[in-house]
Design brief:
By secondary structure, the protein is of the alpha/beta class. About 30% of the residues lie in helices and about 15% in strands.
Amino acid sequence: MSTQVILHCVRHGQGYHNLGAEFFNLRDPALTALGEEQCAKLRQDQFQDQSKIRFVASSPLIRAIHTACLVFQPTLETQTLLAIPEAQEIYDYGSDTGKDPEFLKETADKHGWPVDLSLVGPGWNNKDLDGPNSPVSPACAARARIVRRMLREKAKELSKDTNEEIHIVLVAHGTFMHYLTNEWENSTRGCGTAWRNCEARAYHFKDYEDDGAWVVETAESRKRRGIEGPPASLERQKELYDEAMDGWVEQGLPDLRSVATASAKEPRSKM
């Protein structure tokens, strides 16, 4: 495929759960006023020109949908935002558990958000430990792979009859972004993530046929973040993953590596 495709990954703006761990049990919290301001700033700083954006998707959680609609409002005047259930956040806290499809539709209609909820079916927000939306790492990695493959297929479809550069967007969540990109550097900079609220990074697909649909951050995106040189090797990322898991546990978060420790609803000994 000769057409260049850029995938913009955007973390949502500040939600009420980002104000402190005492708010983690708020169910699918909305953006704060600051979160809305962050969206306006991101649009002004990085997305004034949206003429090349051909597709926008987001997690079905309210804060992600709202962020997408604020940042990419010019694009969504003529396009529809696709909500992808597999892009939901990782943990089983209330704040990471989405609302039922009927509520999402009512909310979208109320605010005039042009969102396609056709993929968001009953049970999409069921985070049982043995289910597909489990917070356990293998399930998280599997969901991330589904999202990458879906985005890559959309990119291939959009690039069939053009040589123009195509940009696509995913708005999702801090912890999920680590699984999506397989980047684990500085993962304890924030609570359960290295991604700041309303941070955007840009990626290429490594290959258009590989099973994992892996992505790599562009040099320009890394430079914008003040990072020189290529990303860490796959072997180093594996080491950084374990460091991230250990660090998140030290922050008081569940250990996602095991069914026995991955749930925030299960009692855990204090560190």
